[in-house]
Automatic annotation (TrEMBL):
<dbReference type="Pfam" id="PF09851">
    <property type="entry name" value="SHOCT"/>
</dbReference>
<protein>
    <recommendedName>
        <fullName>SHOCT domain-containing protein</fullName>
    </recommendedName>
</protein>
<dbReference type="InterPro" id="IPR018649">
    <property type="entry name" value="SHOCT"/>
</dbReference>
<feature type="domain" description="SHOCT">
    <location>
        <begin position="130"/>
        <end position="157"/>
    </location>
</feature>
């Protein structure tokens, strides 16, 4: 267990899955266990990640990093399970804190990047609302400054995003 990889792809091996952080998103690959069917691998672009939850391991409990995905209901344990990587120990806690920080930085870059394709004028109001909610979440977590938030909000409201 640990972290390996180049600057363009970092690998964090947890207890149940391996987390890969690339330039464009996160890949979670399940670690095959003897009596457990393999779910496989899921690729999540940074622009789809709404929130990153992190919990340090406690006495008798595992720590985890949980990626909340836009449009995924939080109450569905089957769906959420594929977005969680668990870990134990102080060394792993430090590594996964680094992973959390890196993911949040990449999310902020994806929000500020001009590489995000502009949406068409016929985009529904639900898309605008979800984009504004995502921006508010990033601002509340301290990933975006107030000025960045306001600039991105104006772009969304003007239909330039």
């Amino acid at each position: 267990m640990g972290v390996t990889g180049s600057s363009s792809r970092r690998e964090y091996k947890g207890r149940n899955s391996t987390l890969f952080i690339t330039d464009t998103g996160v890949i979670i690959q399940e670690i095959r266990r003897a009596f457990k069917p393999k779910i496989g691998e899921i690729t999540i672009p940074f622009k789809s990640i709404v929130e990153v939850h992190f919990r340090k391991p406690g006495f008798g409990t595992e720590g985890y990093i949980d990626l909340r995905i836009a449009g995924t209901p939080n109450y569905s344990s089957r769906i959420r399970r594929t977005h969680i990587v668990t870990f134990k120990g102080k060394k792993m806690t430090t590594l996964f804190e680094e992973a959390k920080s890196l993911i949040e930085q990449q999310i902020a870059k994806s929000v500020n990047s001009d590489q995000i394709a502009p949406q068409k004028a016929q985009t529904g109001s639900n898309d605008v609302v979800s984009q504004l909610e995502r921006l508010a979440t990033l601002k509340n977590k301290g990933i975006l400054t107030e000025a960045e938030f306001q600039a991105q909000k104006q772009k969304i409201l003007a239909g330039k995003f």
